[in-house]
Write a structure and sequence with these properties.
Elements: H1 2-26, H2 32-57, H3 62-102, H4 114-163, H5 170-197, E1 206-209, H6 210-228, E2 231-236, E3 240-243, H7 245-262, E4 268-276, E5 279-285, H8 321-331, E6 335-341, E7 344-352
C-alpha cells in the first residue's frame, strides 16, 4: 500500500510539474515575478495533490483528515505569500534597474539583489567605457577635421593664385605636392587605425628576429634623422618572435619617427632589442626631455600630440602613430608602454618569445 501511495503521489507531482513547465514555456516572455509565481504554485499544487492522494489511500476520515488538509492548506498559503512578497521585490528592483538604465547618465542603483547588482555594475562600467569612447571619437573628428582643413585651405589659395596667374613660382607646385603627400599619409593612418579598432587587422605571422627588424628600421629612418640632425644608435640582441614583419616594423618605425621628431638636434635616439624576463622586447629611447606625469597615461590616445594646439607639423604628424603602434602590438598579444628615462623617455614593446 505504501508503494502504491508513493507512486500515486509521484505521478500527480510529475503531472503538475509538466503542467508548470508548459506554462513557463508558454509565458517565458513574462516577468520574473510571474515565473516565480508559476514555480511556487506548481510546487504547492504538487504537494497538495500528494497529500490528498495519501490521505485518501490511508482512508483518513473525519477530524483527522480535516486537520491534515488544513495544515497542508496553511503551508500552501504561507508558501504562496512568501512567493508573492519575493516576486514583488524582484519586480520592483528590476523596474528600478530599468529606470536607472533609461536615465542619463547611468548610475548603478545600490541595494539590488546580488545578480541584479552585478548586472547594474557591469552596465555602469560599460556605460563609462562607451562615454569615454564617444568622447575620444568626437575629439578625433574635431582634431582630424582641423588637421585636414588647414592644409586644404592653403592648397586652395596656392592653386587659385597659380590659376589666376598671380604667381608663377614653381615652389607653389612643390608645396602643393608636399601637402598632398602629407594628407595621403594622414588618410593612410586613419584607415589603418580604423582597421585596428574594427578588429580587421590581418597578420601574416612568421618567425622573425628582432635584431633584423631593428636594422631595417634604422635604415628606413636614417634620412629623417639626418635632416633633423639626430644620431641613431642600436644595440640589438637576437630575440625570435612569431610576428607579422611588416606590421611590427610599422609599429617600431612609428616609435622611432616619434622619437626623432621630439629629440633636439645633436640628440640621440637609441634602439635596443633582446630577451628580458622570458619575453622579447624592443625599446626606443629618445632625448625629448621627458613627458609630463599627467600625460603619460594619454601618450597612446588617438590624435594626442602633447599640446592643445593643432598646428600642422612639417613632417605630417597627426598624433596617430603611437595609437597605431599600440594596436599592432596588442594584435600580436604583446604590450607597449612608456616611462621617463634619462634625458628623455623610453618606449618599450614586450612580445612572447617564439
Amino acid at each position: 500500500m505504501t508503494a502504491l501511495s508513493v507512486l500515486v503521489a509521484a505521478g500527480l507531482g510529475l503531472l503538475v510539474a509538466m503542467a508548470g513547465i508548459g506554462v513557463l514555456r508558454w509565458r517565458r516572455a513574462r516577468s520574473i515575478g510571474a515565473m516565480l509565481a508559476v514555480v511556487v504554485v506548481a510546487a504547492v499544487a504538487a504537494t497538495l495533490a500528494g497529500v490528498v492522494a495519501i490521505t485518501i489511500d490511508m482512508v483518513i476520515e473525519g477530524r483527522a483528515r480535516d486537520v491534515v488538509l488544513a495544515v497542508v492548506g496553511v503551508g500552501a498559503l504561507v508558501g504562496l505569500g512568501v512567493a508573492y512578497v519575493v516576486a514583488r521585490r524582484v519586480v520592483r528592483e528590476s523596474r528600478r534597474l530599468v529606470e536607472a538604465v533609461r536615465s542619463a547618465p547611468f548610475i548603478a542603483p545600490q541595494g539590488l539583489p546580488t545578480e541584479l547588482q552585478t548586472i547594474a555594475n557591469t552596465l555602469e562600467e560599460a556605460y563609462a567605457r562607451e562615454q569615454a569612447l564617444e568622447g575620444a571619437r568626437r575629439e578625433l573628428v574635431a582634431w582630424v577635421s582641423h588637421d585636414l582643413r588647414t592644409p586644404l585651405a592653403g592648397m586652395r589659395a596656392m592653386a587659385e593664385a597659380l590659376e589666376d596667374g598671380v604667381v608663377t613660382d614653381r615652389r607653389y607646385v612643390s608645396r602643393i605636392r608636399h601637402e598632398v603627400e602629407r594628407l595621403s599619409l594622414m588618410v593612410d593612418d586613419l584607415f589603418e587605425l580604423s582597421r585596428i579598432h574594427a578588429g580587421a587587422l590581418r597578420l601574416s605571422r612568421s618567425r622573425i628576429g628582432l635584431a633584423d627588424l631593428v636594422a631595417d628600421t634604422l635604415a628606413g629612418a636614417e634620412a629623417l634623422a639626418a635632416a633633423k640632425g639626430v644620431r641613431l644608435a642600436a644595440s640589438a640582441a637576437p630575440a625570435p618572435v612569431e610576428a607579422d614583419a611588416g606590421a611590427l616594423g610599422r609599429a617600431l618605425a612609428n616609435l622611432v619617427v616619434n622619437a626623432i621628431r621630439h629629440t633636439p638636434s645633436d640628440g640621440t635616439v637609441t634602439l635596443t632589442s633582446g630577451v628580458l624576463d622570458g619575453t622579447a622586447y624592443l625599446a626606443v629611447a629618445d632625448g625629448c626631455g621627458g613627458i609630463p606625469a599627467a600625460d603619460l597615461d594619454r601618450v597612446f590616445d588617438v590624435a594626442f600630440r602633447g599640446e592643445a594646439a593643432r598646428t600642422p607639423s612639417s613632417d605630417g604628424g597627426a598624433g596617430l602613430g603611437l595609437a597605431i603602434a599600440q594596436g599592432i602590438v596588442e594584435a600580436h598579444d604583446g604590450m607597449i608602454g612608456v616611462v621617463n628615462s634619462g634625458p628623455g623617455c623610453r618606449f618599450e614593446i614586450r612580445l612572447p618569445l617564439a
